[in-house]
Design a protein that fits this description.
Length: about 240
């Protein structure tokens, strides 16, 4: 009887842990307050496995001030220098294009400096997507990107992933964002031929593991029940 009860207890805990931790899924997130201040963070979340991902951008209420747009997003999904191959499935509005080891691997996009200065987007190990209008040779229209300071919104990308080598980064993923804030015009206005500059910024950080509240609640409840069962089991002995 004691063996049966102990076995039931062990099985219950294992089942709870299995429900609380879905096999093959990883949820990473980071907040950025550099554009709007500490009280208005932008939240980036990546829910992914070795074959697919959902990338979500949640923007806060607009406090006013400069308008900033997200023009590209890069991830280092696997360790080493082999970038994952990506295939976009759904995107927000805009002409979003993949850049990885096999597609647009050396693409150049609009950067800061004398307009229209461009530079290489991707580095080894990173892959992601960018607004096609930022590519060298295009009309360089950054305002078709994600409006990060325009008020509360949720923007979602879904994409498929193909590994080209290395182990999937599940504890943390190196992450980069390109921010664009418009042109600084010469003293004679938009009609003059003076050099103009583009205001840009870049976030370079890690998406980190963040347990879901529902997962923590489920696991905590399960452990409390298991503890109560153990106490009852011991008291009968």
């Amino acid at each position: 009887m004691k063996i049966k009860r102990a076995g039931f207890l062990a099985l219950s805990v294992v089942c709870l842990l299995g429900v609380a931790s879905p096999v093959g899924a990883t949820l990473l997130s980071v907040t950025d307050s550099t554009l709007l201040g500490a009280g208005s963070p932008i939240t980036y979340t990546l829910d992914f496995s070795a074959t697919s991902a959902t990338f979500t951008i949640q923007t806060p209420a607009a406090p006013g001030g400069a308008a900033w747009y997200g023009g590209w997003f890069l991830f280092k999904l696997f360790d080493g220098n082999n970038p994952a191959d990506l295939s976009l499935v759904t995107t927000p509005a805009g002409t979003w294009t993949v850049s990885d080891g096999g597609t647009n691997s050396t693409v150049q996009v609009l950067q800061s400096g004398s307009y229209p200065s461009v530079g290489t987007l991707r580095t080894d190990g990173f892959s992601g997507f960018y607004l096609g209008n930022l590519e060298s040779g295009q009309d360089l229209n950054y305002i078709q990107g994600i409006n990060l300071t325009g008020g509360i919104s949720t923007n979602i990308f879904t994409f498929d992933i193909t590994s080209t080598g290395g182990n999937l980064n599940t504890d943390a993923v190196n992450f980069k964002v390109g921010y664009y804030d418009g042109l600084v015009w010469g003293g004679c206005g938009r009609d003059c031929t003076e050099i103009k500059n583009i205001n840009t910024s870049q976030l370079s950080t890690d998406l980190q593991s963040v347990p879901e509240p529902g997962t923590l609640l489920l696991l905590g409840s399960g452990l409390l029940m298991a503890g109560a069962f153990v106490r009852r089991f011991r008291s009968r002995d």
